[in-house]
Inverse folding.
């Protein structure tokens, strides 16, 4: 039984992904601090933050689902920033591949949760 947003596997995975990206971003060049670094951190944190905010409104089914859609948007945005990080040479291809797989898993889980959620 789900008693808290913390019980949602997609929340845990998205939180872990955000923390992994945060740690990785520490290796980015300093001149990216206010652009790519900031953007990838914000978008990845937004995934789990929107799950949390939506959970607080879960008794209003459409409101929770709307926040899941916001999380999906942040997932797609994070994927784009990972691609930029790869193309700029800030992360190796193998690491990017792993991040893409994690982002894809989170996106699939968000989609399923959105399709199946009933307050």
């Amino acid at each position: 039984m789900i008693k808290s947003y913390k019980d949602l596997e997609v929340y845990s995975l998205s939180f872990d992904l955000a923390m992994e990206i945060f740690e990785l971003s520490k290796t980015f060049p300093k001149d990216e601090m206010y652009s790519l670094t900031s953007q990838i951190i914000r978008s990845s944190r937004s995934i789990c933050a929107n799950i949390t905010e939506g959970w607080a409104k879960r008794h209003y089914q459409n409101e929770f689902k709307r926040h899941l859609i916001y999380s999906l948007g942040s997932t797609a945005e994070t994927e784009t920033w990972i691609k930029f990080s790869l193309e700029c040479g800030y992360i190796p291809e193998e690491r990017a591949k792993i991040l893409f797989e994690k982002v894809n898993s989170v996106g699939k889980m968000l989609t399923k949760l959105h399709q199946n959620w009933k307050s």
